[in-house]
Every structure is written in structure tokens, then in C-alpha cells.
Design a protein that fits this description.
Elements: H1 25-28, H2 49-63, H3 66-85, H4 98-159, H5 164-184
Helix pairs in contact: 2-4
Length: 198
Amino acid sequence: MGSGGELGSTERGEPRERMPAGASAASRARVRLDMPRPPRRTLLPEYDPEAFGRLSEKIARFLGTGRFIVWMTVTIIAWLNWNIFAPEELRFDRYPFIFLTLALSVQASYAAPLILLAQNRQGDRDRVTYEQDRKQNERSIADTEYLTREIAALRMGLGEVATRDWIRSEFEDLIKELEERRTVFPSERPGHRDEGDR
């Protein structure tokens, strides 16, 4: 039935998947995006970067103390004294002290990257702290602006409310006006009533 000229279907009638130009069989395997990839096997030893970072910080902190400098100085003085004053057959590093130089070079070559790693980790922590401080400052500024707007609205609302001083001044004005009317229209005799006008 199938002459091979039908487009988009196989002999069973199922649609064919079109592959992009240059796609190989390896790229045909569908990868699920909702699941993590299985870890790749490597020949290199695996380590926990966080634990290594903590260890490097401890070492860097020790290298930056006076205790390290004292112990290093004591070790070098003992090394030099031993290799100068000890009997010839017990000396292990003669005068140019090449082995001491090599040991100090190795110590320095390990100390520098450990200190840099500790500084990088501290920089990352500082960056996170600065970001949190910046967000906190933004929230504080927003809260302050909100409270400022609320206080301004309250002041505008209170501008319409009668205060005690305003009421007192109004009463004083009314009393003055009544006194002025009394002087313009004096009251009649105290015993006279207007009963005849009824």
C-alpha cells in the first residue's frame, strides 16, 4: 500500500517526527526538563565545595594571626640553629638552606590561594548582606513615604475640624458683637415689660 511517497506517515499510519537538519541519533533522545540530570561520572575526586570553603576560611584566619607568625618564626629559628650547630651527620639542610626555601615556597603557594578563596567567600557574604540591607532600606523608605502621606492627609483633614482656640475666638467675637448691640440698642427700664404689646 505504501509507496513511500506519502508525506508525514509511516506504513502503520503513525506520523513521523521531523528532525532538524544535521540532527544525529544521539540528539533524538528526548530529555525531560522536569527531572534533574543524573550526575556524570568523572575520574576526578569529588568534594564538597562548601566544606572546602569553610576549611580554607579556617586556615586563612589562622594564617592571619600573630600566633602563626610566632610559630613560623620559632620553626625557622629552630631549623636554622639545628642545621648550623648540630653535628655534621645530623644536619639535613646545609648552608644555602634549599629545603627550607622549598618548604616556605610550598607554604606560600598554598596560603595565597586559600586566602583568596576565603576573601571570595567573604565577598559573596558581604554582597548578600548588602543586598538584604538595600532591600530593607527600600522597605523603610517606602514605609516612611507612606507614613508621611498619611500624616499630610490627617493634617489636611484636621484643617477642617473646629479646634478649641477657634471656638474660643468665635465666642469672643460673638460676645463683642452682643456688647456692641447693647450699646447701640440700650435695654429699657428694668421694671418695664412689654405686656401691652401682646
